[in-house]
Amino acid sequence: MFPQRLDAPQAFDIAKAMLDGFNRHYRLFRAESARAKHRFETADWHGQQRAQRERIEFYDLRVKECVRRLDKEFNAGALPMVVWHQVKLHYIGLMVNHLRPELAETFFNSVTTKILHRTHFHNDFIFVWPAVSTEYIESEDPGARPTYRAYYPAGDGLHQAVADIIEQFALQRPFADLRRDVDCVVRAMQQQLGAAKLRSNFQIQVLTSLFFRNKGAYVVGKLINGFTELPFALPILHGEQGTLVIDAALFGENDLQMLFSFARAYFMVDMEIPSAYVQFLATLMPRKRRAELYISLGLAKQGKTLFYRDFLHHLRYSSDQFRIAPGIKGMVMLVFDLPSFPYVFKLIKDHFPAPKDTTREQVKAKYLLVKQHDRVGRMADTLEYSLVAFPRDRFSDELIAEIQKHAPSQLEISDRDGDGRQEVIISHLYIERRMIPLNIHLQECLDAGLDEPESASALEHAVLEYGNAIKDLVAANIFPGDMLWKNFGMTRNGKVVFYDYDEIEYLTDCNFRRVPAPRCEEDELSGEIWWPVRPHDVFPETFGPFLLGNDAVRAAFMRHHADLLDVDFWQSHKERIQAGHVYDVFPYDSTRRFGGVPLPTQPPGDIT
């Protein structure tokens, strides 16, 4: 129980120090995010990628700073629990008028769990559940920028409204032809509106900060007409002459889902009130969890907090058991899932059989590389947790035996909270969105019979997407290493995503070689590799026997991606990246680009 009186003199000072630590973190986080606009305007693509990577580390650095301060000034680890009760109450009081209370609560948790014993990781001492509402938060600063602006085309027309939207961002680089781009956007909007009558509330609401990622800046908003709300995003890119162009118009929840995918790098957005941005985005993508929205905005720790709350809620209202995940078992990771929950749980095994030659620390480094790298829509993001507790009665005995066999160092079964309930405690865990393993998807297509048009089309699409995924990874300077089908998954939107990271390398670290000509008949007939192989050597010609054993799969692959078996494909991309080229990888199909398939010119509706 919380104390009825706040009588510990140091409790307020500790709470204030913790909030100061959070405020410093967000000030630096926001400043780095705001600088993305200048990097975009100056085409500093390498700087943009570097900033996206380095910003991920900000949070942990500020947490460590705060822990050191509390230890030095208050000897925090030796304080009695009654003081920590009061610290939390004072902290709640300090957040009453805070613009980012949910982030401040998570920062409090991160600091406190570095100081207190895990038996105190419950709501008396940390924010297991939120204490301060984030609804309707507004800044009282007269100069504060609103979260979004509304534009009403009924006055000056749709063309003028779209032009005003673009111009209010005040980009310090000219457009090649803004009038032309606005015409394209207006035609696309009119096509979406169709013959619908324009109601009195017809308006365009647009978030007031651009969303920056890699080489693009995105306008994000929604069209409102009557009872209909239509999400949209406008990608702004640098054209061939260095001037700006609006490259496409994306509409609807599915397009926005792809733009905010868990397999893409985090956006850089200058947000005064993050919860208001998340609230707006949630109206555009109601199927996307708020945890995922926070993560996509670079607020990964807040995403982890919300994810864990969602998970605890799901456990309370479900009754199925955790099990070994379906599919071919991996050599490095042990994977389990809860059938009713759309995620998988992965832990690193204690020992790896031959031919795997790696260590736990090397595997963790690969996952960190993916976290910090541009994932170009083709590598699944992971949530990393330590000391995760699950109810023992939700684990099948088979799964417990599997963990005890392959990762005993990661397993503890105990009543750590002393409440009489046994828990399974996993020391270190990665959590990913569940996908259908590509080898299972292909087998389902084959089992259904390729004489069925639907099955044949699904197989063709899967093989096409598989090759596209590899090519997108190549564009991002990533060589996946183990390219077997089982290491890729199919998302609910039909995208193929890579998720096995223990053998990935930077493309520029690989040596792409041709298989040498046989020296003699014995070499030609040998079933073993007879030529010398050095570390990081890759022989693209040898991919075929491992990947293309099925005739139908091979035929589809050769139709679309025969170049992946050619060393020249890999070497040419490596050389361009080494020369400093940054490839464009679009989060939408090329046919959506205004420079691609022309849009219809007939203007439905009556506002132009």
UniProtKB/TrEMBL annotation:
<dbReference type="Pfam" id="PF20423">
    <property type="entry name" value="AceK_regulatory"/>
</dbReference>
<feature type="binding site">
    <location>
        <position position="346"/>
    </location>
    <ligand>
        <name>ATP</name>
    </ligand>
</feature>
<keyword id="KW-0329">Glyoxylate bypass</keyword>
<keyword id="KW-0963">Cytoplasm</keyword>
<keyword id="KW-0723">Serine/threonine-protein kinase</keyword>
<dbReference type="InterPro" id="IPR046855">
    <property type="entry name" value="AceK_kinase"/>
</dbReference>
<feature type="active site">
    <location>
        <position position="381"/>
    </location>
</feature>
<keyword id="KW-0547">Nucleotide-binding</keyword>
<keyword id="KW-0067">ATP-binding</keyword>
<dbReference type="GO" id="GO:0016787">
    <property type="term" value="F:hydrolase activity"/>
</dbReference>
<feature type="domain" description="Isocitrate dehydrogenase kinase/phosphatase (AceK) regulatory">
    <location>
        <begin position="15"/>
        <end position="318"/>
    </location>
</feature>
<keyword id="KW-0418">Kinase</keyword>
<feature type="domain" description="Isocitrate dehydrogenase kinase/phosphatase (AceK) kinase">
    <location>
        <begin position="320"/>
        <end position="589"/>
    </location>
</feature>
<comment type="similarity">
    <text>Belongs to the AceK family.</text>
</comment>
<comment type="function">
    <text>Bifunctional enzyme which can phosphorylate or dephosphorylate isocitrate dehydrogenase (IDH) on a specific serine residue. This is a regulatory mechanism which enables bacteria to bypass the Krebs cycle via the glyoxylate shunt in response to the source of carbon. When bacteria are grown on glucose, IDH is fully active and unphosphorylated, but when grown on acetate or ethanol, the activity of IDH declines drastically concomitant with its phosphorylation.</text>
</comment>
<feature type="binding site">
    <location>
        <begin position="325"/>
        <end position="331"/>
    </location>
    <ligand>
        <name>ATP</name>
    </ligand>
</feature>
<keyword id="KW-0808">Transferase</keyword>
<keyword id="KW-0816">Tricarboxylic acid cycle</keyword>
<keyword id="KW-0378">Hydrolase</keyword>
<dbReference type="Pfam" id="PF06315">
    <property type="entry name" value="AceK_kinase"/>
</dbReference>
<keyword id="KW-0904">Protein phosphatase</keyword>
<dbReference type="GO" id="GO:0008772">
    <property type="term" value="F:[isocitrate dehydrogenase (NADP+)] kinase activity"/>
</dbReference>
<dbReference type="InterPro" id="IPR010452">
    <property type="entry name" value="Isocitrate_DH_AceK"/>
</dbReference>
<protein>
    <recommendedName>
        <fullName>Isocitrate dehydrogenase kinase/phosphatase</fullName>
        <ecNumber>2.7.11.5</ecNumber>
        <ecNumber>3.1.3.-</ecNumber>
    </recommendedName>
</protein>
<dbReference type="InterPro" id="IPR046854">
    <property type="entry name" value="AceK_regulatory"/>
</dbReference>
